[in-house]
Predict the structure.
Amino acid sequence: MIHMKLMTAAAKITTKRTRPKPDRIASVDQAVAARLAIALQPSASRGPHVQVIDRDGHRIDLPETLATVVARAASLMSEGHKVSVIADDEMLTTQAAAERLNVSRQYVVRLVDQGTLPSIKVGTHRRLRLADVLVYKAQRDVDRDAALDRLAAMSEDVGGYQLDD
């Protein structure tokens, strides 16, 4: 009994002193993901077909779309990114949409109320289709890049990037 209390106290001390780990995957996992991404690249010899072997030794032909998804996930993981797969027709809460857009939940609610983001009501709660959120995000990024390009061009016009000699 005393031994358990000491371990619990030690665990608390260790927990308090450790720093949170970065939101990245381990380098061993990255190496495996890189090998998988390379293995899943289409080749002239096998064409677009990818086969996996299950634990019982049975071969399974992966559809090209599934192989593409797995290859893309492996590629991202090999670069150290965390990956999640979500269906396009999945419904998101306003909080989940806000996290995906990197904005506040209230801002998403405002976008919904303005009609910028389509949503449906489930009881008193708003739900947004992931596909709609991703379309909005892509358009927002295009608009943001265009605005930055215009700003840089305006700065160049007034000599904002010239160095004084």
Remarks:
- DSSP finds six helices and five strands in the chain.
- The first strand starts at residue 50 and ends at 53.
- Residues 1-22 have pLDDT under 50 and may be disordered.
